[in-house]
Amino acid sequence: MKSLATWLTRSDQFLIQLVNCHWKCRVLDWLMPWVTHLGGARATIGFLSAWLIFMPRHVKLWAVEALIALATSHLAVMFLKKFLPRIRPYLKLTHLHTFPNPLTDYSFPSGHTTAAFSIALTFSLHSSLLMIILIPYAVIIGFSRMYLALHYPTDVLIGVFLGSSFALATVRLFDIWY
After folding, report:
1. Cβ atoms 130, 62 nearer than 8 A
2. From CA 151, how far away is CA 41, in angstroms rounded?
3. What residue spans of the chain are helical by DSSP H?
4. Is the distance from CB of 69 to CB of 167 less than 8 angstroms?
5. pLDDT of residue 1
């Protein structure tokens, strides 16, 4: 078991260095701080609120499902951050590039990635056209979290798993109830 933990730690450190240091460029330095906010509370709740207000009645339920998936997945994120605290990569690995306004709370799991996937998968389960747009959006948000040295790859992968799982469960429960 210890060798698995060692392998995961080394893999996380290698991949975070690859994304944060070796892929560093001016365009991504400018773009990633903006992109990452698309997985934040204002952007996700704003998107879902706008969907509820402006979309036709027959697709408004998708936003309700996504709000439930978002809220419940974030309860899991808050629980994991509290009981499995993990120091953010840029605080532990001093050679990583940091960006303005870095976070100081715990990194495991990635809440932004969880949020992005909870919404993207909820809508994708209803529309393959939206899948083409929203899954890449969610992947880019996860990438941005690593590029900004705020999360390790495993933080992002667990965020993908949580957001996707809660989205799938919520949509399936709504299918059963309605």
Report:
1. no
2. 17
3. 2-17, 26-36, 41-54, 57-83, 89-92, 111-124, 128-147, 153-177
4. yes
5. 63
- The CA-atom distances, in angstroms, between 144 and each of 32, 37, 54, 66 are 5, 9, 29, 22
Q: Is the pTM of this model over 0.90?
A: yes
Amino acid at 150: L
Tokens of 169: 């469960």
Q: Are 138 and 117 in contact (CB under 8 A)?
A: yes
Domain-wise residue ranges, the chain: 25-96+104-177
Evaluated on CA atoms 65, 67, 70, 74, the torsion sign reads: negative
DSSP 95: T
Residue 169 has pLDDT above 80, yes or no: yes
CB contact at 8 A, 121 and 168: yes
pLDDT in tens, 82-130: 999 998 898 888 788 887 777 778 889 999 999 999 999 999 999 999 9
